[in-house]
Design goal:
The structure holds 2 protein chains of 2 kinds. Chain A has 14 helices and 1 strand; from the N terminus they run ααβαααααααααααα. Chain A is mainly α. In chain B, helix 1 runs antiparallel to helix 2 and helix 3 packs parallel to helix 5. The chains are: A mainly alpha, B mainly alpha.
């Protein structure tokens, strides 16, 4: 929008004088926010510093001594948590504005250091021998607590990731892309159950109006796990895959409901991709394997129908 | 009517007003009632779904087109090569025609279907022409530039804009490279031409009072500035000289005019930074930060102390300190700069940030064998290609 257009809106009394005066300097670039630039700088700084310091300590470990290094890390972590605890705002079910711009980053740094400390303890002293999964679970619990207490979505993602990995699933987009989503195939049942639970918990908390801005994270992880679990289950061929096709369709129905309710259409995209893959595999086995022409017709008709449907019933998909 | 973009002006203008106002509503600058009235005052028939639906439609359209292509392939695969290339050309053109008549005619504006048809069309038209010209590189380069520029202009498409600039730069480089005598002048020619292009984009932005092409021109500006910087960057010039001009540098030797490129590597980002801050030009400011980071990387690359961990740590400290100081300094608005997010409630941005953080920093849990799980070094690994 341009300055004259804004002026026009004011003259037609579509916006008040007050609103006009608030918007005008921002629209014309009189006031410029460097919010994201500064946050990027800070984030890069923390990334560089934590990697560099990590290598530095690791290399000079002979001189510093492991105990000293570990205590240093622990102290730094405690300092982070002390800072955020001192500066904390009262807990609220809603989103809480951080008291200072770097508050969120201190929370993050503290949690990252916790991971480092635990990893270090395990690596150097084998402190957690045989209890690694319990350490992961503890981390998850602490992260959940931190995420809720200090209102940090990033930590919530980390908490869910840790929690899921306690069950043996390494959940990360990087692993997923590398096709290394589940370390073992039998895990798809676990993934299904976890996916369902996460989505359900997220939705339930949302209806209870507890940290509504966290719901997306729960549901996102939940749907990803659920659909990925179904697809892996299809490929595993322990059970007739028709069951998984049905499960995917059920998941699609849920995704459609939640997408409508939360206006979050990412889930719909997951659902479409999963359902499309499942249906295609199924139909392929059933009919198409004889004629390649059928494949082409199928892709034209199925996708054409989908486009038609989405465009025709556009008001269902409005944000 | 003058040849212009493909969309209905009034409908699009209304859509843009409502889109902007929706952001105001989200940021709490206007009330829901105001927004309601604005929406009624500026009705738009444009079909412009949200990003996820767009992606879905985009993928679906590509899949459907793959089916169409498969059937056409089965029907025509026995034709002669030239006929097939001509067919590709026609097919690409038909794609554009379908985008215009069927979808834009029904007020699709960046709906996902449009983009799929347009990119598909670009690919086949360029491929068809290149095939007919026997893969002649001059024809390929020029066709790609023209076709992408046309798509960018006609459909206001940002990716096409970037592709047009990219193909233009590649073509220019290739043509200069063909002439032995001109090879050494590639960097200055690039600097001059892309500075000129930057100037043109700025002029065009001012003349485009309705801001139809605003975002396209921002892309042109940013890419031109980056290319000017790349052409003056010592690392880029040296790498390309060694690769393409068969320059064999003995230890201690340096490329011709090395002092010039050392100078430009330092000066260009600083000029960008100064002008960016001075004129409150966010595009230039962001480009300058990227360029600065890459300049630091350039010097570290050639004058390394071989202590990357020290570099990482100290760079981290400097960045943290700088960011914290700036955040403190900009507590109140100074010279029009503020640390506060004036577009605060961009929910999507918060989610994306959380995702990036958890994926790069916290992706690994306490796993044995990896003492420092979060050891991804995010150095200035920018591309060196033009």
């Amino acid at each position: 929008m341009t300055g004259p257009q804004l002026e026009d809106l004011r003259q037609r009394e579509l916006i008040t004088q007050e609103q006009y005066e608030h918007i005008k300097p921002i629209l014309t670039g009189k006031i410029v926010s460097v919010f994201y630039e500064l946050r990027t700088l800070l984030y890069l700084g923390i990334l560089l510093f934590s990697s560099g310091a990590g290598i530095l300590i690791y290399q000079n470990i002979g001189q510093i001594g492991h105990v000293l290094a570990l205590s240093g890390l622990t102290l730094l972590m405690l300092a982070c948590f002390a800072y955020v605890t001192l500066k904390r705002q009262p807990y609220s079910h809603h989103s809480v504005k951080p008291p200072s711009p770097y508050y969120d980053y201190v929370v993050l740094l503290g949690c990252l250091l916790l991971v480092s400390v635990l990893g270090y303890a395990q690596f150097q002293f084998n402190l957690l021998e045989g209890n690694l999964e319990w350490a992961t679970l503890t981390t998850a619990v602490i992260f959940f607590a931190v995420a809720y207490r200090f209102d940090h979505v990033g930590i919530l993602s980390m908490a869910i990731t840790a929690f899921v990995s306690f069950w043996g699933i390494r959940l990360s987009i990087v692993n997923w892309a590398a096709g290394d989503f589940f370390t073992s195939r039998q895990l798809y049942v676990t993934a299904l159950v976890l996916g369902l639970s996460l989505t359900a918990i997220g939705s339930w908390l949302d209806t209870r109006k507890i940290k509504k801005h966290f719901s997306f994270t729960y549901q996102n992880f939940g749907f990803l796990l659920y659909f990925a679990g179904c697809l892996v289950g299809m490929a595993a061929e322990d059970i007739p895959y028709g069951w998984f096709v049905l499960l995917i369709y059920a998941g699609c129905a849920a995704a459609y409901r939640i997408a409508q309710w939360k206006k979050s259409f990412l889930f719909l995209l997951y659902a479409f991709l999963a359902a499309y893959i499942a249906t295609t595999v199924w139909l392929g086995d059933l009919i198409f394997d004889q004629h390649e022409v059928l494949w082409f017709l199928y892709s034209i008709i199925s996708c054409g129908a989908l486009i038609f449907f989405v465009v025709k019933y556009r008001h269902y998909f409005k944000q | 009517m003058r040849f212009s973009f493909a969309y209905d002006r009034q409908q699009l203008a209304n859509l843009k007003v409502v889109k902007e106002c929706r952001l105001w509503l989200k940021d709490g600058w206007i009330t829901a009632e105001s927004f309601e009235r604005l929406q009624q005052t500026f009705p738009s028939a444009c079909y412009h779904p949200n990003i996820m639906i767009r992606l879905l439609l985009f993928i679906a359209t590509l899949l459907a087109l793959a089916g169409v292509l498969g059937i056409l392939g089965l029907m025509f695969h026995s034709l002669s090569e030239d006929l097939i290339f001509a067919g590709l050309l026609v097919y690409g053109g038909l794609g554009w025609w379908a985008a215009e008549k069927i979808f834009i005619g029904r007020h699709h504006y960046k709906s996902g279907v449009n983009e799929a048809l347009i990119y598909h069309g670009c690919g086949f038209i360029i491929g068809g022409v290149a095939g007919l010209a026997d893969g002649n590189e001059h024809v390929l380069g020029i066709t790609a530039t023209v076709v992408f520029a046309f798509a960018a202009f006609r459909y206001l498409d940002l990716l096409s804009t970037a592709c047009a600039i990219g193909s233009f730069a590649l073509t220019l480089f290739y043509e200069l490279y063909q002439v032995e005598a001109l090879r050494t002048f590639i960097p200055p020619v690039f600097i001059i031409i892309f500075l000129a292009l930057y100037g043109l984009a700025r002029r065009a932005k001012q003349q485009d009072t309705q801001q139809w092409w605003h975002h396209n021109l921002v892309v042109v500006e940013a890419l031109s500035l980056l290319l000017v910087y790349a052409a003056g960057n010592y690392l880029v010039v040296r790498m390309l000289s060694e690769e393409l001009l068969d320059l064999d540098l003995a230890p201690g030797d340096d490329i011709p005019l090395a002092w010039f490129f050392y100078g430009t590597t330092v000066i260009i980002p600083l000029v960008y930074l100064y002008r960016g801050i001075r004129n409150k030009d966010v595009v230039m400011l962001r480009v300058s930060l990227l360029a600065l980071a890459f300049s630091v990387f350039t010097f570290k690359y050639y004058f390394s102390l071989n202590r990357p961990e020290l570099t990482l740590t100290s760079a981290g400290v400097v960045l943290i300190a700088l960011a914290m100081w700036l955040m403190h300094y900009l507590k109140k608005v100074r010279n029009g700069y503020t640390r506060e997010s004036i577009r605060s409630s961009r929910w999507a941005a918060v989610q994306a940030e959380a995702l990036v953080i958890s994926q790069t920093l916290g992706g690994t849990q306490a796993q044995s064998g990896k003492p420092f799980g979060s050891g991804t070094s995010g150095g200035g690994g920018a591309g060196t290609e033009f």
